[in-house]
Amino acid sequence: MGYISGQTIKELREQKGFTQAQLAESLGVYESAVKSWEENKTYPDIMVVEPMAKVFEKDIKEIWPDAFEIRVDETPTTEDLAFYVCPICGNLVVSTHGAYVECCDLVLEPLAYEQPNAKHNITANPTEGGYHIRVNHGMSSVHYISCIIGVSQKGYRVAMLDHEGIPEADIMMEGLETVYFYCNKHGMFVNPIEA
Ligand SMILES: [Fe+2]
After folding, report:
1. 182: CA distance to ligand 1 center in Å?
2. What is the pLDDT of residue 71?
3. How far away, in angstroms, is 168 Cα from ligand 1 center?
């Protein structure tokens, strides 16, 4: 199990005949971000994975086999989880048990959590084996929900969202306790799920 490696990005970029600068431009990130991914110094934001797959004309699963199946083996509690967003490249990092997180030569601080409000809230409906989560929020290219993260006693799962689509995802895990979602303008929201 693993995230997209720098080697994979480099190979796919070269197959496509792109320079680092060209890939960066097509993904809306800095060239330095692509360079640092390829050197395994930082990792691409999960929000970049889908656009990257499109640029490479691959299915997300082909470049990241574990997409939507991220989980940790330890038992995180909500307090253990921390989220970081790089203000320069927009990279989102999820960590457990605290971490030293650096991106674009900046040390990142964990995000504070916002409480749901009239414009940022979710509807959670139980399904077989999980929950269907819908974030009640508009979507546009400049103001969007980038991901939905479900947390239970057994781990967490991340669903990346298409910025132009409906902000919803099926989080296939039993005992979902908390759902986080990230609005690019208003921050990370935390939503407890009623048992
Ligand atoms: Fe928002």
Report:
1. 8
2. 43
3. 15
